[in-house]
From TrEMBL:
This is NifU-like protein. It holds the Pfam family NifU_N. Gene3D superfamilies: 3.90.1010.10. Residues 10-129 form the NIF system FeS cluster assembly NifU N-terminal domain. Belongs to the NifU family. It comes from the Bacteria. InterPro entries: NIF_FeS_clus_asmbl_NifU_N (IPR002871). GO terms for molecular function: iron ion binding; iron-sulfur cluster binding.
Length: 146
């Protein structure tokens, strides 16, 4: 597949998550709630996680932001569901490395749609948009682990 076709495919995946977000909403019972924003662009996220016995049982988000921010939140909630807390944190680390253009172990986990965000690394101003939901998830999981 040519670079242009791959780039177009990635854009399609991002727009699909933006227009049809997965896991949009909030969890009520026994959930960890994290609110974060990106003051430079106005993106904001309200993330709720249901954590049980060291596992992310469920994850939902709400908020406002650009297509990168909201798509990333949708993808993140999908990939962390069912993961152990350490695995969720490891996925956040992999995502952070991907955003910085660093090498990462892409064979341990199937990143699925998350790979569509690789191109964001070419636009430093947009990296904070892509990482907002992931930083919120890290904060919630790390608080739970303490």
């Amino acid at each position: 597949m040519s670079f242009n076709n791959l780039d177009q495919l990635y854009r399609s995946v991002i727009m699909d998550h933006y227009k049809n977000p997965r896991n949009k909403g909030a969890l009520e019972e026994n959930s960890v709630t994290i609110d974060m924003n990106n003051p430079t662009c106005g993106d904001r996220i309200h993330l709720t996680l249901k954590l049980n016995d060291g596992v992310v049982e469920d994850a939902k988000f709400d908020g406002e932001g650009c297509s990168i921010s909201m798509s990333s939140a949708s993808m993140m909630t999908q990939i962390v569901k069912g993961k152990k807390l350490d695995e969720a944190l490891e996925l956040a680390d992999i995502f952070s490395k991907m955003m910085l253009g660093e090498d990462f172990d892409d064979e341990k986990y199937d990143l699925g749609d998350v790979e569509a965000l690789q191109g964001v690394a070419k636009f430093p101003a947009r990296i904070k948009c892509a990482t907002l939901a992931w930083k919120a998830m890290e904060k919630g999981v790390n608080n739970e682990k303490k």
